[in-house]
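User: Let's play a game. I give you a shape written as tokens, and you guess the letters that built it. Ready? Here's round one.
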């Protein structure tokens, strides 16, 4: 019996929800599905059993204008969806099985010291300068993700120890990170004026919690005024590289960033090692023997 792709996708999402998959991940599946709907004709969507590997390859090619990381995410989610359809007998075969995920070309994109100086100075300006400066300091010193910052509650942060509890990191794994003296001072100033009715640590002056888009817009606008390309994740890249340059070890960095493996951390190590080689001076060569 044939089922329309939309009905199969609804069942797939319900299965993922039952497995405890987070809302942010479910949203990436929805975005992938919108790509499929926008690309394929109605006949294919109504009769997904007619989808061929060639159809899916054509769809993958249509994603070429996206960044590699985005294309990789879309293709990975499509492969998972169609694999589920095959596994539960809704499709005889997985038309997306043939798809190859793009080779990863990701590189860290940290701020330079000059960019950070401009950005932090500009963040202090305007009616929300106290909050925005605290936001930037917090992102830079903790290295946490956009979602993790937005989910923070006041009680998750200790101004005495600088410890920050991340209740649900990626993969729903909790961890503790640290912020330094300047970030704690900036946060204290924000807490002095923050609306007491707000549920989350960072919010608007009306007490409304920041969503993903609002946070990106705040950081982007600060960057525009400072003539710096800025988005929340650049602070994370900068934190990671500075941590290594300041003699932090890769394994503790992996924990602080909340990564399950060392693959991403290795990219930071490569860049930090390049910078170290530029600064290296041979003690032996300096001897006048």
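Assistant: Ready! My guess for every position:
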């Amino acid at each position: 019996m044939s089922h329309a792709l939309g009905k199969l996708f609804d069942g797939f999402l319900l299965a993922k929800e039952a497995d405890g998959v987070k809302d942010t991940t479910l949203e990436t599946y929805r975005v992938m599905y919108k790509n499929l709907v926008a690309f394929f004709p109605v006949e294919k969507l109504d009769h997904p059993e007619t989808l061929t590997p060639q159809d899916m390859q054509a769809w993958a090619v249509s994603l070429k204008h996206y960044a590699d990381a985005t294309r990789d995410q879309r293709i990975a989610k499509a492969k998972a969806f169609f694999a589920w359809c095959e596994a539960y007998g809704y499709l005889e075969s997985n038309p997306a099985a043939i798809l190859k995920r793009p080779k990863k070309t990701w590189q860290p994109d940290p701020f330079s010291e000059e960019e950070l100086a401009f950005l932090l100075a500009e963040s202090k300006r305007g009616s929300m300068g106290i909050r925005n400066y605290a936001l930037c300091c917090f992102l830079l010193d903790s290295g946490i993700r956009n979602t993790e910052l937005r989910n923070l509650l006041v009680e998750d942060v200790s101004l005495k120890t600088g410890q920050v509890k991340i209740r649900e990191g990626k993969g729903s794994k909790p961890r503790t990170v640290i912020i330094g003296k300047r970030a704690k001072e900036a946060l204290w100033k924000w807490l002095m004026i923050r609306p007491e009715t707000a549920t989350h640590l960072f919010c608007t002056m009306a007490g409304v919690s920041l969503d993903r888009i609002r946070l990106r817009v705040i950081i982007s606008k600060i960057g525009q005024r400072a003539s710096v390309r800025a988005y929340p994740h650049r602070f994370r890249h900068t934190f990671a590289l500075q941590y290594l340059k300041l003699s932090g070890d890769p394994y503790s960095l992996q924990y602080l960033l909340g990564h399950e493996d060392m693959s991403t951390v290795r990219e930071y190590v490569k860049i930090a090692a390049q910078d170290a080689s530029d600064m290296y001076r041979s003690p032996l060569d300096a001897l006048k023997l």
